[in-house]
Design a protein that fits this description.
alpha+beta; 4 helices; three-stranded antiparallel β-sheet
Length: 187
């Protein structure tokens, strides 16, 4: 009788474990959480339009993107993907780098991830993204991470700029104190 109860208890524990995902570690998220909102994305698009209207007069355009705006864009973009590399993104803009935290899932296991990016401008006047480091906890970094992340961030960048970016050439990108500043010229 006791062996049946023990077997039943072990079965319940096993099934409940399989029904949930198991956290297996990875880098800790910072204490400060960046809020996610559709309003931040809308504000960014309006900000871009205003910057380009002002730039039409001077020829120079300066755009500032905040951590909340980039986190919101990335969160909305990952939700629309069928099988994203990670979920629950948090974008921090500090000390010249973009630090993206997230959560990766592999089967029943999940882990925190951290991808550190250096963002610069290529010869063609477009953003260039270089992965400085990628920590997927106990998971190996996914194949094609650089290409997929570059495509995701480029889509977020071009999607935010949209039609206002026609004739725009990016000249510099600076990251500090929670803000990424993009400066360029209208051709």
């Amino acid at each position: 009788m006791k062996s049946h109860r023990l077997l039943a208890l072990l079965s319940v524990l096993l099934l409940s474990t399989l029904a949930c995902s198991i956290f297996v570690g990875g880098p800790d998220y910072p204490q400060e959480r960046i809020p996610i909102s559709a309003e931040a994305v809308t504000d960014l698009k309006a900000q871009f339009e205003q910057a380009f209207l002002a730039g039409a007069q001077s020829g120079t355009v300066t755009l500032e993107m905040t951590e909340e705006q980039l986190t919101s864009i990335l969160a909305l973009e990952t939700v629309s993907q069928k099988d994203p590399f990670f979920t629950d993104p948090q974008v921090y803009l500090r000390e010249g780098q973009m630090r993206i935290y997230g959560r990766a899932y592999r089967g029943y296991f999940n882990a925190n991830v951290l991808i550190v990016l250096n963002v610069s401008v290529d010869e063609g006047g477009k953003p260039s993204i270089e992965i400085a480091s990628a920590d997927f906890g106990p998971f190996p970094a996914p194949e094609g991470l650089k290409q997929s992340l570059t495509a995701l961030l480029t889509e977020a960048y071009t999607g935010s700029l949209g039609p206002v970016a026609t004739g725009f050439r990016l000249e510099s990108i600076a990251i500090a104190d929670g803000v990424m500043t993009l400066t360029g010229r209208i051709k």
